[in-house]
Amino acid sequence: MSEPALEIESLSFSVRGAPILRNISARIGHGETWSIIGANGAGKSSLLKCLMRIHSGWSGRVQLFGRPLESYSQRQLAQRVAYVPQPGGDQRFPYTVREFVRMGRYPYAGPLGAAHPGDKAAVDEAIARADVGRFAARTFDTLSGGERQKVFIAAALAQQGDILLLDEPTAFLDYRHQAEVFAILRAINRDTRTTIVAVTHDVNAALLAGGHVLALRKGEVAWSGPTRDLACEKRLGRIFDARFRFLDDPESGLRLVAPQGAAQ
Q1: Which residue segments constitute the domains of the chain, with CATH numbers given?
Q2: Which of 55, 193, 211, 240 gives the lowest tally of CB atoms within 10 Å of its CB?
Q3: Overall pTM > 0.85
């Protein structure tokens, strides 16, 4: 197993006394791809927000590259971990795509926001990797949902972190833009060994991503393991309280799934 990028031990989190996460543990190796799956309300997004310290007050232990998460300053954390939130909402930013991606360089800014010598190269590379160069001069609010999501990924890449956390990166996107986002993430992981951790409620998205899966159910770990072992009727039924049928995809060689209704 590769050296750990993230080690999570017994992480628990509550809001006003209501448990959201209970004793979550996982070991995520450097350069690995992980999908966090589960039904709505399982705690998937809350887990990412705890790891990014958007949520505070959780208990347990999190090690980031061998150091306690709490030992990182906010700037240090942003230099190691980038976060892409869920798409959607009223995203009105009066900036061009290039200006928006340039904001991803904030962890490296000098006193009074002075530019870092590596900014231009990092922004150029992020724009190229996320395939947003053809509309880099357009303003953010003129873009489609799929284009906006690729810009958010570009801004995260500009941080040049070792870990990329994504919350439902293809939610609300059409099939073409879903495929484009997945292709971008695969290339990032392959070419740069960036650790990818993506929340999704789509089982097929996790299967196609490969790597590893952390499945949550009602705030607890329901299953964790290699993605190739996920397509099991009993296992998926327990995670989602639903029945599934299975389809063999001749192109990928994977066993994909389709829901059939509530579990009996």
Answers
A1: 4-262 (3.40.50.300)
A2: 193
A3: yes
